[in-house]
Amino acid sequence: MADEEKKQPERNNLNLFKGLLFWIIAGIILIALARFSTFEGKKEEIIYSRFLNEVKQGNISGPITIKEDVISGTLKDGKKFSTYKPDDPELFNILREYNVDFKVEPSSN
Fold first, then answer.
1. Minimal CA–CA distance to 76: which of 62, 94, 93, 96?
2. Alpha-carbon gap, residue 33 to 87, rounded angstroms
3. Euclidean distance between CA atoms 93 and 19, whole angstroms
4. Quick check: 71 and 54 in contact, CB under 8 A?
5. Among 46, 79, 92, 103, which is most buried by a count of CB atoms within 10 Å?
6. Residue 16: φ, ψ to 5°
7. pTM: predicted TM-score of the whole model, two decimal places
8. pLDDT value, residue 52
9. How many angstroms separate the CA atoms of 53 and 69, rounded?
10. Residue by residue, what is the 3-state secondary structure of the chain?
11. In 10 A of CB 55, how many CB atoms?
C-alpha cells in the first residue's frame, strides 16, 4: 500500500511536467508563427508608373532595393511597396535626380 502512495505523487509530477512542457512548446510555436506571418510587413504591389510618380513627388522613405526584376521600399506614410522593374534606361538617372537612395542586390542563383 505504501508503494502505491509513493507512485501517485510521482505520476502527478510527471503529468504536471508534461502539461507544462506542452504549453511551453505551444507558446514558442505561436510566437514563431506571429513573427513570420504575412500580416506583418505586407507589401502593396504598385504599377511602375505610380512608383515613378511617388519618386518625383518625394514620397519615398529611405533607400529602395532593386533585386532582379523587383523594386521594393517604403513610402513616407509607412506603407511598404513593390513593383516590377522594366528595362528602363532612365531609372537610375531619375532616382539620382530626386535623391532616392537605392541598393542593388545580386540575384539569388
1. 62
2. 37
3. 62
4. no
5. 46
6. -65, -45
7. 0.61
8. 97
9. 19
10. CHHHHHHHHHHHHHHHHHHHHHHHHHHHHHHHHHHCCCCCCCEEECCHHHHHHHHHCCCEEEEEEEECCEEEEEECCCCEEEEECCCCCCHHHHHHHCCCCEEEECCCC
11. 20
**Burial degree of 4 (CB within 10 A; 0-12, 13-18, 19+):** exposed
Task: Specify the amino acid at residue 32.
Answer: A
One-letter identity of residue 65: T
Average pLDDT, the chain: 86
